[in-house]
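Open question from group meeting: does this chain pack into something compact, or does most of it stay loose? Before anyone orders reagents, we agreed to write out a predicted structure and look at it together. Recording both the input and the output here so the notebook holds the full record.
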Amino acid sequence: MLHAGHRDTAVLICPPWGFEALCAHKSLRILADQLADRGYAVLRFDYPGTGDSAVDPEAVGDVDAWRTAVVEAAEDLTRLSGASRIVLCGLGLGALLARLASPDVPALGGFILLGPVSDGRRHLREISAWSAMINDKIGLPPEAAATGGVGIAGFRMPDALATSIKALRAAALPMPQVRHFVAMRPGQTVDADFTAALKGADIACEAIAFEGYDLLTGDPTSARTPAEVWNAVGAWMDANFPAEDASCPPMPAPLAAQVGAAFEEEALRFGPGDHLFGILCRPAGASGASGGKVFVFLNSGFDPHLGWARSTVDNARGLAKAGIASLRFDAADVGDSPALPDSPRQVLYSEAQARDVTSAIDMLEARGFSDVILAGRCSGAFLGLAGAVRDPRVKGAVLVNILRFIWNPEEDVDEAIRNSFRSLANYRSRMLELKTFKRLFTGDIDVVRVSADVFRRMSQKLGVRLAPVSFGMTKYARLYDEVHRRFRLLRERGTRISLVYSADDGGLDELSTYFRAGGAGLAAYPNTTLTIVPDADHNMTPRAAREALLAHLIDFASKG
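Structure tokens returned:
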């Protein structure tokens, strides 16, 4: 994605891989926007087999494919921006790839290296250790998490690619005599050693501490943009690459279109001021056609339109193979869609996101699509339910691991999204495990937080259970009445609803709260079905769970 600028220097952002890239996606877009505001054209891109790339991950080969992608992206940026110098900006593994590709970037003017990886083998070992921690955090048992080779949070690096990355050492790569900016991760002596090596080679280098690195890469929904580091990057660019205009006029920024074996994709800007970004995916050969059925994939938390473990990309292309179109898009202040001036501080579970869904449906309707199906997980499922209620043009919704049928305005969103991924039954079973007792004694479990979450859910369940006899006098009675009003409205419209849950998901507590144990109360709503997916976490991380969900989406569409 090109962020237009007018200066004679442009910046190419080389992203990290996998989970780190998912977490940093929005922040790297913000960095690109800030640099573009200073006048520097910026290009963000996906390596083959990652992000929105049309390449199958297993077809990537070794790291040379990624090195070549960096070189080609630099050439595209030079051509599109008219700039005569390129600064390579890499985060994590992206910094090592930028160094690897630099000898073939003739217009190289400098490096911005953010938490740079210096040793490929060490980095992949860190990913393996990081993966075990993430799996424990999301409640994924080892047998369900196993991917073979290098993997993290559902992302898997092909063996040939991993083997070639293990062989990379920054110390063995050329050290171009260009300006360097290095943000060093706290506590990482390798970053300090790398910076010392640059200065020892008489290379101009500004080094700062990468404050906020852990908050940037810990989780996509709780990720925080390292504002001070980003500001330092901008100041360094201004100091080292003054404001000469490009010698050639910049070319218009193209919106990407690509074709795979079974799909055709078109990048779109839409909504008020074209502030929303999305990708329309159609069956191969259908780009000139209009109308028909279309899924709209909604963000889960702050996961960008790619989805957790790239699952939304896989679902969109799997649907295209089955002859079904889809739109995956980012709501405002998520992924590639910037915040609006009136965007709330916390956009999740807000009316603002509901307006974005309406904008997406308006755009699809203008293109002739008449049968819209919303699909989302977690907060995206909440948004899907709200969107179906709000807009009669929605013909169906697939709601995966929905944690709230309605939002209690007294509840804090930030606190809620840190909890509730496990059901109360799962909490009880885990309390009987020896390892849980060990973690309690070592302080690895936040007893106060977990206890507060359990108490909240039990109190809500009791309050809602008593709702029918409280004559609408309590907040729980009002919540109960509103949930069932919404489900009655969808029943009367004939809007099909599919509730999909992982077997131990925390959303099952919400289901039993409003519709009794096992969802027995759903019998009053024949337009609504319930599906349980075994051996899966809240994010549907295991490959088998994701394949089961895709099959369910195709089946849901076929019956409409």
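Observations to bring back to the group:
The first strand starts at residue 2 and ends at 3.
Residues 19-37 form the longest helix (19 residues).
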